[in-house]
Amino acid sequence: MFAHDFLLQEYVPLGPYTTLGIGGPARYFLRAGSREAVESGVSWAAERGLPLLVLGGGSNMLVADEGFPGVVLRAVVRGVRIHATKHAVDIVAGAGVTWNALVSHTVAMNWAGLECLSGIPGLVGATPIQNVGAYGQEVRDTITHVEALEMATGHTLVIPNAECGFDYRVSRFKLEDRGRYIILAVGFRLMPGGAPAVRNIELERLLGERRLARPSIAEVRDLVLEIRRRKSMLLDAGDPNARSAGSFFTNPVLTTEEFARLETIIADTCGDEARIPRFPAPDGRVKIPAAWLIEHSGFGRGHVHGNVGISEKHTLALINRGQATARELLKLACEIRDRVRDRFGVTLVPEPSFVGLSMDE
User: Fold this and answer.
1) Helix 256-270 vs helix 326-344: angle between axes, to the nearest 10 degrees?
2) DSSP conformation letters of 204-222
3) Average confidence score pLDDT of the chain
């Protein structure tokens, strides 16, 4: 009945499978190591009328203390196919491939396109869902297609980039088609010997300090890892600031009218000298740093709230200080969101996926 790489367990705590280390048990926990095993798992859950949750690397997830009442499917479909020419390198990576390992390999081969996404935890399959991005790059820049299992029909589809609905930290897989597909593999097109992406102010500043006017792809990766390490945004069991889900809130993207209103509010509440950084966004919009809004609302780095808090190194990272519950973390997140909204009229949007809980409760 089941594929040979199909492992089913009961009442498995989910906290150890997330970077936050928070989450109650899954009623059933299923490890699927192949496409056939994924299909078997979906059928098994459907036959029993059980809800299904797909779990990758757990790096962008907050799970309720009660856990999940259905089947948690950990899809670890691996394997990488590569077709290289003089002009492009096409890669198809299984959803269960470790993201940073894939990036490390592409950089070692001097293939440009993923270097600024170094050090991000998790698996390949999660990257299109979130349109993962950092330091001037997003996966939508290089994704060619997504191979996905449509759960209702059991059909495997190849969805091209243009039909993925990519936008800032979202895609159709996170919004209108949430829960419809299980991603099996992702295709990327990279440039052999191409120039690295340098589109981020923080990265540009560090390149200037190191006097690297024309950095290599490998040098850019090393600097990105250095920046992430300074912020405790690399997986490190010995660093308490690293027990997080990464950035908990996305950076707001405002229309020019909304930004003008915000500048007026900032002048009235913070003084005429206060200036919030701004960055251009698509369609003439303006992207602003959520960290600035949080800090100017009274929540600084190292803020402590019982068993949870804000990282000492990165304002956007909410951390588990030890034995934290999902309710504690959610309460702190709501307090931050509400304070920013009341002070500046901007509602911060959480970046992690919530399982069994909501900031609207």
Assistant:
1) 90
2) HHHHHHTT-SS--HHHHHH
3) 95
Which 3 state secondary structure label does DSSP give 72? strand
Q: Measured between alpha carbons, how far is 249 from 117 in angstroms, rounded to an integer?
A: 18
Level-2 CATH architecture, domain 240-355:
Alpha-Beta Complex (3.90)
Q: Determine the Cα–Cα distance for residues 242 and 180; give it in Å rounded to an integer.
A: 32
Locate the domains of the chain by residue range: 6-75, 80-230, 240-355
Two domains, one topology: 80-230 and 240-355 = no
pLDDT tens-place string over residues 233-246:
998 888 999 999 99
- pLDDT on residue 1: 46
- Residues 128 and 93 sit within 8 Å (Cβ to Cβ): no
Cα–Cα distance, 281 to 251 (Å, whole number)? 11
Model pTM score: 0.90
Q: Which two tokens stand for residue 351?
A: 């970046």
Catalytic residue numbers read: 169, 247, 351
Which tokens go with 319? 């951390």
- H/E run at residue 191: strand 181-192
Sign of the torsion angle spanned by Cα atoms 195, 316, 353, 343? negative
Cα 115 from chain centre: 16
Lowest mean pLDDT among 161-165, 208-212, 217-221, 234-238: 234-238
8 A C-beta contact, residue 266 and residue 276: yes
The CATH architecture one would assign to domain 6-75 is 2-Layer Sandwich (3.30)
The answer to whether residues 114 and 102 touch, using CB atoms and an 8 Å cutoff, is: yes
**CB-based contact 28:40 (threshold 8 Å):** no
CB distance 315 to 325 below 8 Å: no
CATH 1.10.3720.10 assigned to domain 80-230? The reply is no
Residues with Cβ within 8 Å of residue 97, at least 6 apart in sequence: 78, 79, 80, 123, 124
Q: CB–CB of 170/253 below 8 Å?
A: no
**Cα–Cα nearest to 293, from 273, 313, 275:** 275
pLDDT, mean of residues 329-352: 97
DSSP designation for 16: G
